[in-house]
Amino acid sequence: MPTQNLEEQLRPAAGEKLVFDTNPVLSERLTHYCPGCHHGIAHRLVGETLHELGVASRTILVASVGCATFTYDYFSVDGLEAPHGRACAVATGVRRARPEAVVFTYQGDGDMAAIGMAESLHAANRGEKITSIFINNTVYGMTGGQMAPTTLLGQKTTTTRDGRCMEREGGPIHLAEIMAGLDGVAFAARCALDSVQHVREAKKAMRTAFEVQIEGLGYGFLELLSGCPTNWHMDPVAASKRIAEAMIPVFPLGVFKNKRTEQSSQSGKVHHA
Amino acid sequence: MSTEQRILIKGNEAVAFGAVDAGLRCYFGYPITPQNEIPEALSTLLPERGGQFVQAESEVAAVNMLLGAAACGVPSMTSSSGCGLSLMQEGISYMAGSHIPGVLVNMQRGGPGLGDIGPSQGDYFQAVKGGGHGDHRNLVLAPATAQECYDCMFRALALAFKYANPVLVLGDAIVGQIKEPVRRVPPADAVSEKTLAALAAPWRMEGYGKRGPDAQPRLLKSVYLAEGALAERNRLLAQKYAAMQAECAWECTDVEDATLVVVAFGSVARIARSTIRRLRAEGVRVGLFRPLTLFPFPAEALLALLPGRRFLVMEQNLGQMVEDVRLALFGQPGVTPATVQWHGIMPGLFVNADDLREPMLQALKEAF
Lengths: 273, 368
Ligand SMILES: Cc1ncc(C[n+]2csc(CCOP(=O)(O)OP(=O)(O)O)c2C)c(N)n1
Ligand code: SF4
Ligand SMILES: [Mg+2]
Known about the structure:
The complex is a heterodimer. Chain A is an alpha/beta fold. Chain A is built from 10 helices and 9 strands. In chain A, a hairpin with a 5-residue loop joins strand 5 and strand 6 (146-147). In chain A, helix 3 (87-97) runs parallel beside helix 5 (117-126) and helix 4 (109-115) crosses helix 5 (117-126). Chain B is an alpha/beta fold. Chain B folds into 2 domains: 6-199, Thiamin diphosphate (ThDP)-binding fold, Pyr/PP domains (Rossmann fold, 3-Layer(aba) Sandwich), CATH 3.40.50; 250-367, 3-Layer(aba) Sandwich (Rossmann fold), CATH 3.40.50. Chain B is built from 13 helices and 15 strands. Chain B has helices at 11-21, 37-48, 59-71, 83-98, 124-128, 146-163, 173-177, 193-200, 229-243, 266-281, 299-304, 321-329, 357-367, and strands at residues 7-10, 26-29, 52-55, 76-80, 103-108, 139-141, 167-172, 179-182, 219-220, 250-253, 260-263, 286-291, 293-295, 310-315, 340-344. Chain B has a 7-stranded mixed β-sheet, sandwiched between helices. The chains are: A alpha/beta, B alpha/beta. Chains A and B meet through strand 1, strand 2, helix 3 and helix 5 of A and helix 3, helix 4 and strand 9 of B. The structure holds thiamine diphosphate (TPP), iron/sulfur cluster and magnesium ion.
């Protein structure tokens, strides 16, 4: 479908009523993501949040390296590229140079919890007024499905052919819980993108993850359990089912810290520093 | 402060004073000897002026914070030494690829590996040949005195913004640690903070709302996957590096009647100058050519000295700048391998003017 016709095709015809619109913060551009990939849903949630908060015109996006490298092509905000894993350090520099801006990073699990773990934890611990969206899809999507720090025990990847093994590779990293234990973190939550209800919850959490930054409370963190049908070798429906059945039992959903309300949900483990 | 008044400070402190007087707003760094006085001074100087000082968790983090702040068009820098600069190379390459004006100071220490904390010029190649992955070049300035440390921070920020490119200030343990009088007055060619801001206006990250209601979002990046796009990007970079040749700077001392010209930079040039002064008093016709920019290397200025003269490269490494001197001179009529001699001082040594006397006399003998 040629992109130039998209606008036309999406507008209601005579007699039709508009019930769902495109989002002005998202560019009307076809993404490069695989069919059924949840990066698209996550983008939509970010776009809606920035639009509803009315901050897009002062937002600076720090992209990461992974399947979402080109995320800046899909958001109509100022954006720059960070080296693999360094988005939180780059965002620190941006926020310090532009205290009036709204700054967010959008990072995969390999980017944020492996190569960029130090930069991510230290930015969070400093309480940088930034927001990080963390896409946990239990693999390195872009490089072809290798083991990620979040890969489940027993999960087969191209570098764990007989399944991830505790003795050999250690267990999956629970970043939301780790983040919640750091004093500079104002909000840390884990949501999932597998069902309408979970997407709605994710939208709510996304808003708070940005609000704590805007209100100057500290670092906002949102982990999203996301499907990667391609590297999971599943169709999109089966991928969503895997999130519900295999991921959520290992990665409990919930708000682990919220300085806005100073209370945590019952659904997740609560860590107090 | 009157122009007569001078303050007694270390080269490292002069870097800090020069940077803030030139308009520095953000500093990011991780402690390493022999440059710690730079972050220590800036940790009070910057907040006093409403600027930002961040002690990063590593040099990897520091260089990427620099990338972020400099991408906002805000005068920003980092500083380090030896292994710290090695950790920064990925970020430097990204800044070069994305046209981002970061300023970095390397007060070199001995290497390889952890080496020592004494003087060295072993990072010459890393600084002037790019250092990171891919084809990129940094503008490289080589101060030799505390005064030059102060002055060259103005130049470093101005050049970084003029070319939207990383600029490296390459000192060493002696240059950074030596305490001497400094006139804290902006150099004659200093550009204003307003000029820096104007240079950054077309590309800086700020949020599109700052540019009016209909402004288009901006993007700073180094990735170019479409067919032909990276080639186009590299062509643009090549043009920029060619244009940088205009920034060549050097200093000649006692070269007019010299038969031997010593080529040296930084602290070695200072020591060589003392030796040359003494030899001159004895009637030996020796002079000094001191590059003030190492990239671009002042090859043409060196070439202009060629007729009737031989050259002795003195540097504290295993032979690095000598390659650029040979590139500048070899292939010219009358030039033989003996035209360019080399004397290396091992990193890890402290030498004085006496130590360089014999090598200079020896070079005179061998050259003619
Ligand atoms: C320094 C460096 N090392 C390795 C790579 C290669 N690389 C690109 S993306 C990636 C993994 C990304 O995985 P993740 O962050 O989980 O994102 P996803 O693709 O799954 O969304 C790697 C290893 C790189 N670009 N830079
Ligand atoms: S490889 Fe996976 S994460 Fe990457 S775009 Fe495809 S489905 Fe999405
Ligand atoms: Mg991943």
